[in-house]
Amino acid sequence: MKKMIFLFTLLMSTWAYGFSEQALISQLQRPQSVQGDFVQARHLKALNRPIMTEGKFTLVANKGLLWQMEKPFNTQLRVTEKGIMQWNGTQWVNNGKLGQAEQIQLFLGLLSGDVSGLKKQFKLTLTGSSQQWQVTLVPDSLLMKQIFNQIIIQGDEVVKMMTLDEAQGDKTDITFKNNQINSPLTDFARQALQVQ
Predict the structure, then answer these.
(1) Angle between the 101-111 and 2-12 helix axes, to the nearest 10 degrees?
(2) InterPro entries, alphabetically (predicted)?
């Protein structure tokens, strides 16, 4: 789950909108929110068929990420500067097993448009145009080399797909659909991410 959250945060930060690093940073800082649906296929080398999950996400700049899995079961997670927490039906509960401090800091850096932390851990390659682009992240730090072989993010106006190729042989494909930029948030998302 923590790898999925880390990957998602990389992906949904509307990270790769431009040709240059400066355009990329500018695009990261522009949207106040991105929300939509996701479908995740987790390919484990020990299984013949992928494990499928579906749900909704809400990403709000300087606030955090709300990840609402609906299938095969309901789970709500939020990622903020305070860490990763799970909704138990009445309150948010800290679950230390779901995240790592370094991944959370990296996520918050992406939300604020600071790619310096990302560049310390990955070699970045951006290709294509604003209408059809691809970003390839190859781990450069020892920690990330232990987790990933590479991460590929593709999109047009917004991120459409993310592939996480993990070092131990597993792979995760996340497809984002019905993406909306700066649309009104649900009451639950506003409360979860403490949006005024």
Answers:
(1) 10
(2) LolA/LolB/LppX (IPR029046), OM_lipoprot_carrier_LolA-like (IPR004564)
